[in-house]
Amino acid sequence: MANPHDTPDALKELQDAIYREKVLRARELTPGERCSDVFELSTFQFHLMHAGAMKRLGTDDHEAGWKEVRRSLDRLAKVHEAGLYTTTPPLAR
Fold it and tell me: 83 — alpha (psi -120 to 50), left (phi > 0) or beta?
């Protein structure tokens, strides 16, 4: 593979190779390993949300941070249940 700094297409080739490797690795996982990875990523994401909530609140109180995370998740659930949030793109006009 060419040096990404030598040719414009080399970076794209490197990105494609990395993506391909990740996909092939993911395909080899057992269902249990996939589930474990999901829990690990979810836990990491919750901690990021907690840190963001504490920063927004300007506090070091961990309990207040978790309450803010819960409030945000509840708000998101209400918006989703009301049909205001969807995971599918809108229809093209």
Answer: left
Per run of 10 residues, the mean pLDDT along the chain (length 93 residues) is 72 92 94 93 95 96 96 90 77 61
Orientation angle between helical segments 31-57 and 62-81, nearest 10 degrees: 110
The Cβ-side half-sphere exposure at 14, using a 13 Å CA radius, reads 11
- In Å, how far are 12, 15, 19, 54 from 2, measured between CA atoms? 11, 12, 17, 45
pTM of the model: 0.62
Tokens encoding 23:
């996909």
- Cα–Cα distance measured from residue 6 to residue 14, given in angstroms and rounded to the nearest whole number: 12
Contact between 69 and 49 under an 8 Å Cβ cutoff? The reply is yes
52 vs 33: CA distance, rounded Å = 29
